[in-house]
From TrEMBL:
Residues 177-373 form the HD-GYP domain. It comes from Pseudoalteromonas ulvae. This is Two-component system response regulator. InterPro entries: CheY-like_superfamily (IPR011006), Cyclic_di-GMP/3'3'-cGAMP_PDE (IPR052020), HD/PDEase_dom (IPR003607), HD_GYP_dom (IPR037522), Sig_transdc_resp-reg_receiver (IPR001789). Signal peptide: none annotated. The modification 4-aspartylphosphate is found at D56. Keywords: Coiled coil, Phosphoprotein. One of its GO terms (molecular function) is phosphoric diester hydrolase activity.
Length: 438
């Protein structure tokens, strides 16, 4: 907690000794308000915003259930905790039904436990407020993007289109809670990508490849969902990195700089860990830089103890860095990138996952919405160009959305031979296209 901001907590109990004890515990880190009269407490809620209300259950005239029910009506965003030594189950059920309590603490309480519950409740309120603020910012940004659509540069247009497609997919998702969760994650991913000056589409490509690889490895549906969300946010912590490290190839970083880079995984995990239901996602982020043989970051796990989502993300993430040039400053072909990964089998990466990823690249499932980077000898008629393909001089030879034919592939191969140049082509694989490499 800082001196500039202290969350506000209101305590309601008819025993002054209890109120004094609670005030002593929390007055250093929180702004506290105590009431031994429930009616006065309810009146106070009409004039002052609080983050948390902790009320005793058994009080004369007005019960804790009534106080928390009034809190829910007056300040629905405030969290509500029931505090009581009274073991009547009917009263507890009443408090849950009427007051929508966030937690229940019995008397006498354990100081460490009550501090933990209060911190969790306050952080939940703060996170909800931040999410609401981010949602408003995103709505404003989309409105501005629509107004300036004709003059925006290509990068912003691609991000807008990607966000619109993502929102369309989310609108068809089953379940209101799952839909909201995906919207929040994609919103955070988009804002984080803009903050660190990179393409949101890169995160989406890696996330979709991770999901395909996870499906090939027969992960359960829930694991695939967590993997996709984690991969979408795998560089979330980079928003705190020094600007000079954002564009510096990893092969040219010092050991100290690499440590700073890898620590971003922990920062991203800590951000996501605030949401209790996303611990699986934060674990994937936190351990993505562990090494299969140990001595990775944060060097807490190795081998099969590393979450499988983290092991999958490490392979797909670093493959993408090799072909994009983020590792060495020079773009590698898919085959050279795979060789670089295989050279570290069972040292940095899980050999089984590298083998599965290699098999996936040789026979990409048709109809998937994931982009893959291929060389010309891997191209097949019917594949769709996902990103503009450029000549060695930077001029565009094929635009996004072009469907490949034998003639187009032949023209690309002839250019490579004549100019000693290798195209790296990002493609989408529609239905009914045979992608198996001979």
């Amino acid at each position: 907690m800082t001196d500039k901001f202290k969350p506000k907590i209101m305590f309601v109990d008819d025993e002054p000794e209890v109120l004094m004890a609670l005030k002593r515990i929390f007055r250093r880190d929180y702004e506290t308000f105590t009431f031994d009269d429930p009616a006065q407490a309810i009146e106070f809620l009409n004039t002052t915003r609080v983050h948390l209300v902790i009320s005793d259950m058994r009080m004369p005239n007005i019960t804790g259930a009534k106080v928390l029910a009034a809190t829910k009506q007056i300040q629905p965003k405030a969290k509500r905790i029931l505090l009581s030594g009274y073991s009547d189950m009917d009263s507890t059920i009443e408090a849950i039904n009427q007051g929508g309590i966030h937690a229940y603490i019995t008397k006498p309480w354990d100081n460490d436990r009550i501090k933990e519950v209060v911190e969790d409740s306050v952080q939940a309120v703060i996170l909800e407020a931040k999410n609401e603020q981010l949602s408003k910012q995103l709505i404003q940004k989309n409105k501005a993007l629509e107004e300036l659509n004709q003059t925006l540069d290509k990068k912003v247009q691609e991000q807008t289109q990607s966000l619109r497609l993502s929102l369309q997919r989310l609108s068809t998702a089953a379940g209101k809670q799952r839909k909201l969760l995906h919207q929040i994650i994609e919103m955070i991913s988009l804002i984080a990508a803009e903050q660190r000056g990179s393409h949101y589409s890169d995160d989406v490509r890696i996330a979709k490849q991770c999901r395909l690889l996870g499906h090939k490895l027969k992960l359960e549906k829930s694991q695939l969902t967590y993997l996709y969300l984690a991969a979408s946010l795998h560089e979330l912590g980079k928003i705190a990195l020094p600007e000079e490290l954002l564009t510096k190839p990893e092969s040219k970083m010092s050991a100290e700089e690499l440590l700073i880079l890898h620590k971003q995984a922990n920062k991203g995990a800590d951000i996501i860990d605030i949401i209790p239901s996303l611990h699986e996602v934060s674990d994937i982020l936190r351990y993505q830089y562990e090494r299969y043989a140990g001595k990775g970051f944060p060097d807490l796990k190795q081998g099969e103890d590393i979450p499988i989502g983290s092991r999958i993300l490490a392979v797909v993430r670093d493959y993408d860095k090799y072909i994009s040039g983020y590792f060495t400053g020079k773009k590698l072909s898919p085959r050279d990138a795979l060789q670089a990964l295989k050279a570290q089998s069972n040292r940095i990466y899980d050999k089984k996952i590298i083998e599965a990823f290699t098999a996936l690249l040789k026979d990409i499932p048709s109809g998937s919405d994931a982009q893959f980077c291929l060389t010309t000898d891997m191209l097949k008629p019917g594949m769709i160009i996902a990103q503009d393909v450029k000549y060695a001089n930077g001029n565009i030879v094929l635009t996004q959305g072009t469907t490949l034919t034998d003639a187009i592939i032949g023209r690309l191969e002839q250019y490579e031979i004549k100019h000693d140049f290798a195209f790296l082509v990002f493609t989408l694989i529609p239905q009914q296209v045979d992608t198996a490499v001979d």
